[in-house]
Amino acid sequence: MDPEKTGVGRLYGVGVGPGDPELITLRGHRILSEVPVIFIPQKDERADSFAWSIIADMVDKSKVQGLIFPMSRDRKQLNEHWRKAAAIVWQHLDKGEDCAMVTLGDPLLYGTFIHLLETLRMEHPEVDVEVIPGVSSVTAAAARAVVPLAISDERVAIISGNDNDEAIRKTLESFDTIVFLKPNAMFDRLLGILGEMDLLDRCSYVSRCTTGDEEIVRDIRELKGKKLDYFSLLIVRK
User: Could you tell me which of 102, 90, 96, 42 has the C-alpha nearest to residue 69?
Assistant: First the structure.
């Protein structure tokens, strides 16, 4: 970043990985140390930010601001918050200040950053953006569980844990490895489908990957009826 630069600032989308601060890339670490403003996503003003906990020991807290991205399926409400967040970020960019927004995992894989990016591009087409990729929970969980995601010409699917039964069955039939993200809300239903398809012994459940609270479960029958962590995924390798 050039201190003599004028005009619109650059927005960096920085993936900070799944939880372990040592998994942040060198470029991501450098960008976070150099930008004057860092935005972190929060579900509300009082909520802690998992992304902030990852970078807390490496950046100056005085340059950190929260952006509210509520946990909601109300599209109108979400759009309002995305526009508010974009307006806050643009105030800094328009003054020529470079900014970074941190997201868990990778910014462009189900990342909150995508909503900010699309809103800014719609309202300010001149926005200057660079994305710093991060270690995704998918690849990190596979590494921690030591489960190959794909070999040779195998096919991999990444789907939401909230998908309907028909989509889940079709995906399990069509792909060699399937990763279910955030399956906590419908795990027992998923457990039933996997049992019907004789795939229960082909699963690895990982929660809070690479953190001190990490949990890896090979026999997912043990999880039936339990309240599972929001930051979890399930790998099914046929």
Answer: 42
Q: Reduced to 3 states, what is the DSSP secondary structure of residue 11?
A: strand
Give one word for 208, left, alpha or beta, with left for phi > 0 and alpha for psi -120 to 50: left
**Of 155 and 71, which is predicted with more confidence?**
155
Are the C-beta atoms of residues 17 and 134 closer than 8 Å to each other? Answer: yes
Neighbours of 237 (CB within 10 A): 20
In angstroms, the CA 2 to CA 139 distance is 34
Using CA atoms, how far apart are residues 129 and 80, in angstroms rounded to an integer?
Answer: 22
E strands of 17-148, at which residues? 37-42, 64-68, 99-103, 128-132
Alpha carbons 166 and 12: distance in angstroms, whole number: 38
Convert the pLDDT of each residue in 208-220 to its tens digit: 999 999 999 999 9
By the 8 A CB rule, do 58 and 29 touch? yes
pLDDT of residue 126 exceeding 90:
yes
DSSP string across 173-213: HH-SEEEEESGGGGHHHHHHHHHHTT-GGGEEEEESTTSTT
